[in-house]
């Protein structure tokens, strides 16, 4: 069975194509068992963020066809990878090196959530589980051991940075944030810190349960257009499958916001709203790619990814050798059972002698064929590795 991936991201497809493939956690939860039951699929994990939807699987199948069928999108422009290329791609994704916002800190959590969901749905096999765990570890190391960006990287930060440029500063500006998820809260906090008077819309409010950044006002979601009247800008970041702001409703406002920033996939704000007089709409692709790490920091990040990938590769190589190891054990046991000396030691109850003979048989079996097929230098290197492994096991 091969490790494979198929996906669509901002490198290969515009937002209009990506939003059709975007998945909420609930949608991914329902799709995973369906994908796992597809012919040739032995394990699968779905990673869906605002900039990518990727399927990682183990099996013998066409991963692009599996993903397109699962999403009911036969024309989706999918890119595929397999083997080491698929694994290394995930490591780079988890480290934020493949993000539209270089070093995006949210991707580590998103990758962790993806494998956690696959575990709960029993769709991840041991290889996918180990791959994602090691990739998340690599991402965390890159985040803590390098400085890819001078500021915490996120689409929300980029949105506020763009708004600051548009308004030549945000002090005393009025901002409305639609959506109180992780991205919405981050945007609200950043706007507040930039000097805005921020209002966050909420679908429901439960005292002590609903978390809103300190210093931000709240407003019912159903009355969001009233909150937008006279505001300078609005940021929308919900998980809604439908538009939260329509061009028609915005056109009815006397003073609609001059700047509307859409951080959602699928998009929250109707693109046609940008045709209204004095209104600018910016979506994720409009924010553009950001981040220009120094060559030294990129090299260090890649070194970390290489180190963590090598740990995964060694684990996978050992896993692949387990059937041979099991067969070797059976061969040693078979030889012992038919050894007259071993039978005599068993009858005499000589456990130490039995152990010594078993060790001799095992070492003889291992080295007998090896010394005839490798050079003396290679044999010495193998023996040194065995000694080191033995000493490590004693600790």
Descriptive terms for the model:
395 residues; Rossmann fold; 2 domains; 10 strands
CATH architecture of the largest domain: 2-Layer Sandwich
The number of strands is: 10
Poorly predicted ranges (pLDDT <50, ≥5 residues)? none
For the record, what CATH class of the largest domain applies?
Alpha Beta
Q: What is the first-to-last residue Cα distance?
A: 36 Å
Class inferred from helices and paired strands? alpha/beta
Can you characterise this structure?
- With 395 residues, this protein is an alpha/beta fold.
- It folds into 2 domains: 2-145, Beta Polymerase, domain 2 (2-Layer Sandwich); 155-287, Rossmann fold (3-Layer(aba) Sandwich).
- It contains 15 helices and 10 strands.
- The strands form 2 sheets. The protein has a 6-stranded parallel sheet. A 4-stranded antiparallel sheet has the order 2-3-1-4.
- Strand 8 (233-236), helix 10 and strand 9 (259-262) form a beta-alpha-beta unit.
- It starts with a strand and ends with a helix.
- The relative contact order is 0.10.
- The mean pLDDT is 89.
């Amino acid at each position: 069975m091969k490790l494979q991936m198929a996906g669509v991201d901002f490198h290969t497809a515009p937002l209009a194509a990506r939003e059709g493939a975007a998945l909420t956690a609930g949608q991914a939860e329902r799709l995973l068992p369906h994908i796992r039951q597809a012919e040739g699929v032995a394990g699968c994990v779905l990673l869906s963020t605002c900039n990518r939807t990727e399927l990682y699987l183990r099996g013998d199948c066409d991963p692009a066809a599996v993903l397109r069928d699962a999403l009911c999108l036969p024309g989706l422009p999918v890119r595929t990878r397999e083997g080491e290329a698929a694994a290394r791609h995930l490591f780079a994704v988890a480290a934020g090196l493949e993000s539209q916002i270089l070093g995006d800190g949210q991707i580590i959590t998103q990758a962790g959530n993806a494998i956690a969901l696959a575990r709960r749905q029993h769709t991840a096999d041991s290889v996918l589980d180990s791959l994602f765990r090691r990739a998340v570890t690599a991402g965390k190391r890159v985040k803590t051991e390098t400085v890819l960006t001078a500021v915490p990287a996120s689409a929300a930060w980029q949105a506020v940075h763009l708004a600051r440029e548009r308004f030549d500063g945000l002090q005393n500006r009025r901002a409305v944030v639609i959506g109180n998820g992780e991205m919405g809260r981050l945007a609200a906090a950043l706007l507040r810190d930039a000097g805005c008077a921020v209002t966050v819309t909420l679908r429901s409010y439960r005292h002590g349960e609903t978390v809103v950044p300190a210093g931000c006002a709240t407003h019912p979601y159903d009355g969001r257009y009233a909150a937008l009247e006279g505001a300078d800008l609005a940021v929308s970041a919900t998980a809604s499958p439908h538009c939260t702001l329509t061009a028609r409703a915005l056109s009815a406002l006397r003073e609609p916001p001059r700047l509307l920033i859409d951080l959602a996939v699928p998009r929250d704000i109707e693109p046609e709203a940008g045709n209204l007089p004095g209104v600018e709409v910016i979506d994720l692709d409009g924010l553009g790619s950001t981040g220009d790490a120094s060559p030294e920091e990129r090299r260090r990040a890649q070194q970390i990814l290489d180190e963590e990938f090598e740990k995964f590769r060694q684990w996978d190589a050992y896993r692949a050798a387990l059937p041979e190891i099991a067969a070797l054990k059976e061969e040693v046991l078979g030889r012992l059972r038919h050894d007259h000396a071993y039978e005599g030691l068993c009858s005499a109850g000589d456990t130490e002698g039995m152990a010594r003979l078993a060790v001799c048989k095992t070492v003889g079996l291992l080295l007998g064929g090896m010394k005839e097929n490798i050079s003396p230098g290679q044999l010495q290197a193998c023996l040194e590795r065995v000694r080191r492994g033995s000493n490590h096991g004693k600790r």
